[in-house]
Design brief:
The chain is of the alpha/beta class. The protein is built from 13 helices and 10 strands. An 8-stranded parallel barrel has the order 1-2-3-6-7-8-9-10, surrounded by 7 helices. It has a two-stranded antiparallel sheet with strand order 4-5. It binds 2-O-methyl-1,6-di-O-phosphono-D-mannitol.
Length: 335
Amino acid sequence: MSELNSIALKILSKGKGILAADESNATMTKRLESVNILSTPENRLSFRQALFSSSSMSNCIGGVILYDETIKQKTSINKNIPELIQSVNSVPGIKVDTGAKILANSPNEKITEGLDGLRDRLKEYYKLGARFTKWRGVYNITKEHPSKLAIYSNSHALARYSALVQECNMVPIVEPEVLMDGNHSAQDCFTKTSEVIKRCFEELISHKIDLTGVILKPNMILAGADSNKKIHSKEVAKLTLKCLKDSVPIEVPGIAFLSGGQSEIEATENLNLINKENNTDFIMSYSYGRALQQSALKHWSKNLDDIEGTQKVFNHRAKMNTFAAQGKWSKELEN
Ligand code: 5MM
């Protein structure tokens, strides 16, 4: 087993998943302002530190994706954030893209940037303790989109990123996200997601990526948020499994879904059904941002000193998703 493969398995084994706490300052400001909290470096750290020191970290959270600001911050007792994460046997990770920008010649689509200078930034993050990384390419579904141009250029960027990350002995999380925004059908989501993932792996293979040291972070197959043709969780699981079975090379050890705007319960229920029906050799787990943090953030915003209460809320969601990653969740466990 290669070193990269064992890192990927450590992050995702035994129902463990990933806490995506890599919101850029702009996104974190939106999240904090939505609960009337001022977005300062201290407040961002205080909430995140509460999560990273929760008791569920050691059994449920195999890895945490950090943002550049957070990986360089220190806790109230002067511990580095990556050290805090390692101390509970979880793996520190880092978002290394610098964001999705307008794609030239296709102004309604995005291309993710951040390749310039990446090799040197990776060396710095490795020294700080990161052992895996994340890069997100983002696609929207309309009649004309995603275009071949957007699919080819984002896949190429994901492959170049992955090659540099593996060169630096870290596991790349490859995140080609097809957004839920819009009124498209689940079938459209299936077709477009399949196309995007297939192209992404073609590029990864051309760039000689060691697929045993990669984690894929895809969206589930869902109808658009504004569609009136929502599908049942069982159908979500069936279509998601079919899409991944047909598009992901078998060498890939693990898949960790993003939540993409689903409610906390929806994201847990869908993951549970995916695992109940999983007829592949892939580990199917979670790499949730909003679906792990929403309730905890709401609780914390009402009393910033109630760290214990905030952790209780976060522990519950982490445990529920770890059950779901093993197909062992049920609605009754929520109470
Ligand atoms: C945590 O949010 C990440 C994006 O942050 P920026 O947009 O500020 O860069 C995002 O990539 C996240 O990791 C994934 O989309 C999964 O998060 P959700 O909330 O969709 O589970």
